[in-house]
Please model this.
Amino acid sequence: MTFLKGLLRYPIIQAPMAGGPSCPKLASVVSEAGGMGFLAAGYKTNDEMEKEISEVKQLTKKLFGVNVFVPQKSEIDSPVLSSYIDTLESEADRLGVSLGEAVWDDDCYDEKIEYLLANPVPVVSFTFGCPPNGLISKLQQRGSFVIITVTTPEEAEIAFKVEPDALCLQGVEAGGHRGSFDDKDVPGKDLSLLSLLSAVRSNIDLPLIVAGGIMHGRDIAAVIMSGAAVAQIGTAFLRCTESGTNQFQKSAMADPSFQHTMFTRAFSGRKARGIANRFMLEYNSAPSAYPQINNVTKPLRREAAARGDTGTMNMWAGQGFRFAEELPAAKIVERLVRECRQAFDEIKTKTHESII
Ligand SMILES: Cc1cc2nc3c(=O)[nH]c(=O)nc-3n(C[C@H](O)[C@H](O)[C@H](O)COP(=O)(O)O)c2cc1C
Model:
């Protein structure tokens, strides 16, 4: 395994998952188990990020990553945004909360970057945009391995030019927000993981980390056979013992009355995949306005999550959510490795003629 100078034992990264799931305990357990854990700095203050980094450092000496949201200013249709917010008033009344302010913020980006430059961590990854080359090289000079998330071949070309150490290709199957550089709806943006990998691997000479719908070790074998270096896995860890996922979401993931995932902008104003529920279906025409809508719905989401109102809370998860198991994270890593090895062993016992 040449990825990350041989420091990563298995080609498994626990995906950064903001909003609670990828807490220090989960990240450190996955790193100790031979994969690599990730902290999600998104939605946190710089102090909160700093605290989580020190916690992970106390728990493991192994590699771990920190994921940062790249801020972006996109054009907002203000009248459409206002009328969407008006429709949410009845939800707020029902839950006894006031809606938040429809303000833009940069998710404390500059402070977080300043901190990460002054206090380097082994791996830094970016999502929602492409940082400039100057920043990437500064982080690399301080010893961090830098990853940029992309969702299309075009984004991969842009990211390649700023010279990161690896790309993370996020397929349409993935849970949580699309890591796209913008939130525009244009054809060709929602590629499945294998289509994206096929399109990128031939012209980008960088290690490719792939994410989206990887739930079993056999899936890891498949993406590695298809040219990926490492599998980045989120949803499969959502129900595990150490993850900070809301308990009601953990139960909903095993509840047969929740059957599908879908994309929505209803909670945040940015396209994200979650378990389809009443709120997503009712507000499925929500406009693109991130992070304004995210700030507006924050009190709603918090109250719904505290009450276990699974019809109203956001439950980010990928298409494979039904296969997420309630097990210690180390057991999940162990299972993924065992299944992946089995898949490669099976292939070895077959002749070319019996396959193709
Ligand atoms: C609950 C949740 C939160 C997420 N938050 C982030 C995040 O903060 N940063 C990021 O780059 N990706 C985030 N993602 C996307 C994951 O990093 C990854 O692309 C995805 O989980 C892979 O697909 P899978 O969920 O099918 O395994 C999130 C995903 C989930 C499920």
